[in-house]
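Objective 1.3, modelling of assemblies. Example input:
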Amino acid sequence: MPINVTRSSMPSMEEYMEEIRPIFESRFLTNMGPVYKKFQHQLIDYLGTQYISLFVNGHMALEMAIQALGLQVPGGEVITTPFTFVSTTHAITRNGLTPVFCDIKPDDYTMDPEKIEALITDRTVAIIPVHVYGNICDVEAIDAIAKKHGLKVIYDAAHAFGETYKGVGIGNFGDASMFSFHATKVFHSIEGGAIAFNDAQYRVRLHELKNFGIHGKEDVLAVGANAKLDEFRAAMGICNLRHIDEYIQSREEVVTHYRERLGGVKGIRLCQPQEDVKSNYAYFPVYFAEKEFGKSRDLVYEDLQKQEIFARKYFYPAVNEMTCYKGLYPQNTPVAHDVSTHILTLPLYEGLSREDVDRICDVILYA
Ligand code: T4K
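Predicted structure (tokens):
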């Protein structure tokens, strides 16, 4: 059996059928119906923020958070990381803003707060860091810099569902956080996403932006779009939320076994558990130092592929080296370049067996 980098967690078919039965009966399929609202309230409880606005996917949620926070200033710059899925940068540029790439830390691959202030200009409007792989950014340092300079912070928390820092839900940092509920995530609603925030002023604005700007029954206040989460996806979210703690526990067991097999191997670098962070075990990134390990990242990738094990080069190339952005913005982010050319994310999902982890590690270590 091929092993992919991930596999969607699923409730039983019966459980999902039970959840969608009322949708069939009411024929109320979308436009923020009762299942959407139930899901929204459950998420507020689980994530521990005051407000949650649900979207058709994480990307549209991020685009609209930028709009809701009023960041579309002509000539505006946003400090962000090049070590992420391309969606983060697209959300900035598709809003007419300029990404300014800040390098990352070599240990957890999140934005290096020590490099932020040198990038701030009178055009800077915001910072958009990413909790990449579920590794939590230095939220205290970043939020302090933003406060000092009067900047907004939107965290791309696509990978960080359910995580906490010092016991506080991760969606409580910055002005807003975006969670992705894509099928490949720890928690999913097939497609879906959310903005978590604590400031009531964004509530109506986000609601309008995802529903064509419609305000009340007879007026349109904003130039919105359509990015609503429908009832069937909300129902999948409700089912998965019921099992999220089991999913995360199973992933933790997989990660523990990977660590037993790969920890301490010369030339292999693993991310260390972060202090004060409750992890969701979203990804298992491994840095291969070719000289010490004896094999390059690309060679390991190919060896695995020959055995139908599909690890992924998340996130290669760094975003500022992708064809669509190359040449437009500086590429002076050496740590991001180095990490993106040496990293592989290994298969990790709920239910991945110990035997499969052993098989993967045997290929890495002995092929
Ligand atoms: N910001 C960050 C930091 C992100 O990582 C993402 C998304 C976003 C923003 C945007 O959020 P969304 O708009 O997507 O909600 C995947 C996902 O499509 C994407 O959601 C994710 N990040 C990115 C890191 O990975 P691909 O192109 O690598 O996925 P794909 O189709 O190759 O699938 C990977 C593996 O997952 C497959 O080999 C098998 C498994 N799989 C896939 C699908 C589609 C399943 O088990 N079930 C499925 O339904 O992008």
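Residues 4-8, 57-59, 84-85, 87-88, 130, 156, 158-159, 180, 182-184, 193, 310, 314 surround T4K (CB under 6 Å).
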